[in-house]
Each structure stands twice: as structure tokens, then as C-alpha cells.
From TrEMBL, chains A, B:
Residues 2-251 form the Glutamine amidotransferase type-2 domain. PANTHER family: GLUTAMINE AMIDOTRANSFERASE, GLUTAMINE AMIDOTRANSFERASE YAFJ-RELATED. This is Class II glutamine amidotransferase. The keyword Iron does not apply. The lineage of its organism: Bacteria, Pseudomonadati, Pseudomonadota, Betaproteobacteria, Burkholderiales. The keyword Coiled coil does not apply. Keywords: Glutamine amidotransferase. PROSITE patterns: GATASE_TYPE_2. InterPro entries: EgtC-like, GATase_2_dom, Ntn_hydrolases_N.
Amino acid sequence: MCQLLGMNCNTPTDIVFSFTGFANRGGLTDHHSDGWGIAFFEGSGVRHFVDYQSAITSPVAELIKSCPIKSQHVIAHIRKATQGRVSLANCHPFVRELWGRYWVFAHNGDLKNFTPTLNGPYRPVGTTDSELAFCYLLQQLRNRFGENLPPLADLTQELRELTHYIAGHGPFNMLLSDGSALFSHCSTNLYYIIRQHPFASAHLSDQDISVDFSEVTTSKDRVAVIVTQPLTTNETWTQFQQGELKVFVDGAVVE
Amino acid sequence: MCQLLGMNCNTPTDIVFSFTGFANRGGLTDHHSDGWGIAFFEGSGVRHFVDYQSAITSPVAELIKSCPIKSQHVIAHIRKATQGRVSLANCHPFVRELWGRYWVFAHNGDLKNFTPTLNGPYRPVGTTDSELAFCYLLQQLRNRFGENLPPLADLTQELRELTHYIAGHGPFNMLLSDGSALFSHCSTNLYYIIRQHPFASAHLSDQDISVDFSEVTTSKDRVAVIVTQPLTTNETWTQFQQGELKVFVDGAVVE
């Protein structure tokens, strides 16, 4: 299985603290060393980094830790291959375009006997069950809503049905964003925390590093972090219910 | 206008030498400082880096110069904005998926009164004439050939007709690759060189750097470099004819 990290904020924020702990799971504090990736929305554009090296040895991961990129929507993934060989094409997150927006997707889990009919424009490039599920999701959204982005409530309802269906084939913890909202579905393991005023100090569980968020934020900032296993030791993370889909906008749960 | 750089090889090769000279045009030896980008195929996967900082100040460009990435198909672009503001979504190259392959596209030129009907699955995310032309190209390829990649000769013939049509709206120098071939169309300025055994030394025109390719190659290597203006001072570059589309595979012109 793999590890997921998502961030959704009301103001562009860097993910260096969380990513530093998370990246250690790519070969140091955990054994997810079959590649990694991260995508940052900046406006409607996306910076997308993938690597089949482990996150602790990748020079690109080092760049991300040393050059803070500020974003309102971030999705990161560390891979432990279950289906599909170790290759760049199989690294999450995946990016496709729908309705003139980029969509970014990453998955933790293992789908069995999942062979949906793909008769739309989205085809997997790699060989993972995850990219197949992403192509299916986008195809079904396009079939359901046609040529235009629907209201968030309608989109959420459709995604609840689609993720419920896919999760019938195996664990389907996933993060999905179109640069306006971050959708999170939990089959087995997903936690979140919302950091807001008054900010406090946090200490990583994967490395002996603390940060006092009150020193690097304003009182209006709000940041949601979503992850397969809590990243800090001294904060209270909320566990998702199994089968739950939550939608984050501006650092808050809205659906 | 902008600058383009492409590389197509019969064995994975790093582009550090050419990119070093090219990147200097992003604000140092030329005034193309409205962003830049580069995409590398590795197998069917793509590493895609874009930045709206100039190529000479971007830490990501520094990473690419210091950490050689080997690839058989590379497309790079330095932007001087003509249409569309300076933003990440407007940085070339653009990436989309068609027929289960990633397609990478970059454009130099300025299209006027180009308003094709987009009724397929591809929509621009940004506001450039270039991304619009890319979406139109992919839509028309999908309309023409359906669900499967056609033979290269048929694909080339269709691209000749499509690029000819688009170039009727203004300069359309472009590079396009699906990870198996590199398609290059010249409206105004495009040059190429094929480096092969016996390899010689080359000296950059944008920086006082030379490399002796015989020291870093084998006798079987073959590398085509395509660029809007020649990168070296002591080699003979071949200028494309206006309106010409050339196809490179394994470092050779095949169509």
C-alpha cells in the first residue's frame, strides 16, 4: 500500500514541514520506496513532480524541502507498489484535464477485479489500478455532467456514489482536487487536522522537528492537512469514518 | 515570441549542455523571461517542470542543470508572453493524454483570429493561443483516428494538414511528442542538428562552455537537437523550410 498527504488552505501555504515528515516514510521511517510524487496548484496551473526513486534519496524531494512552494491545494503520494511495476508512468499523483481544469489524483489501496469499461477520452498510461480508477472517475463525471463543471454539491454527491462503487473492489483511500476543492475518500485509513488561530507548535512523528505555526501564519490563515497516518505527535487528528467522503475548501470541511 | 528546444535520441541522453545555453536566453542573453518549462519522457512517463520565473533565476532550472535526467524525447520552452498573462497555467510545454499516451507540446509564434470549435474532451486551462492550438490538434487527431494510435505515416500526414491550417493564422513553430516520435513544424524559425559518430566538440553560443561529445557517447549513439536559433557556434545547423514538418525517431529524420 502507499501513503497519502493532502493540504487545502484559504491562503497559499508551503507544505515543507508536513512534507519533511512524510518524505521520511519513503524509505526511512517506513518502507514505501517505490517512487513518490507531489502536485501543487498555483491558480489554475499545476506543478507536478514525480520520481521513481525513493523520497528520501530523490534530489527533487530535496528541492521541494529547500524551496518552499506556496499553494492552496497540494496532493502528495509515496508508493509501495502493489499493482504495476516501479516506473515513472506508475507514480502518483496523476494529472488529467476535465472542463478546462487540471484534476490531480492519488490513491492508497489495492483494487481487485476492477475492470470498468473505458469508452471515454481517458486512458491509463501506466499499469496501476489507481490510474485506471482515476480515468474511470473522470469519464463518469463527464458522462454525468456533460461539458461544464456542476455545482459543488452535485459534484460531491456523484463522487460519493462513484467512490462507494470503486471501494467495493478494495481499499480506496484517495485524494482528488481540481484546484478549487479537495475531495478525500476513506476506505480504511485517513486522518485530518485543521490548523487555525490560535496556532500552536507541532512536532513531527517521523523526525525530531518542531514548528511554531503562530510564528509563520496570520490570524486569518486556515490549513487542513489530510494524511493516511497522523504526521505529528502532539496534535489531535480526526479519523475519517470508513466509506466517508469529505470535501475541503479554504481549509474547512464544507461537505 | 518564445524559444523552443527539442531533443530526440536513440538512447536516453541528458540535455544539460543544450539546456544550459538555452536557459541563458531566459533573461540573460535574450529577453524571454516570462516563464519556462521542460518535459522529459522516461518510458511512457513524463517529468514535467514549469515555472513562471525566468529560466536563469529558477531553482528548478538549476536542479535540471545539476541533476542530469536522461531521456529519448525532451521538449523545452522559454516564454516571452504575447497572448495570455504570466502564470503557471500559461507556461509551455503543455501535457495531455490521448490513446493512453502522454502528449507534450510547445509553441513559438502568435496566432491571430484562431478560434476553432472545441467540441471534444480537450479544453485549455490557461489563456494562450498555444494551448488552444494543442487542444485543437488532439481533438482533430482523435476525431480522425478514433480510439487507437494510427501508423506513423498516417499520423504525420494528418499533422501536416493540421499544422498547415493552424499556421494560416500566424507563426506556428512547434514541437510535439508522444514519447515515440518528435514532430517539429516550422513557420518561420527552426533549426536542427544530428550528432552521431564520429562525435566532435561543440561550443555554446550563449555561454563560454564547450563539450567533447566523443568523451560522453558511444559510437552507436545518435542525438537530434531542434531549436529556434542554433545553440552552438562551431557546428552546422540545418534550417527547416517554411511550412515544413519533420518527424524525428531515434535521433534521425524519418518523415
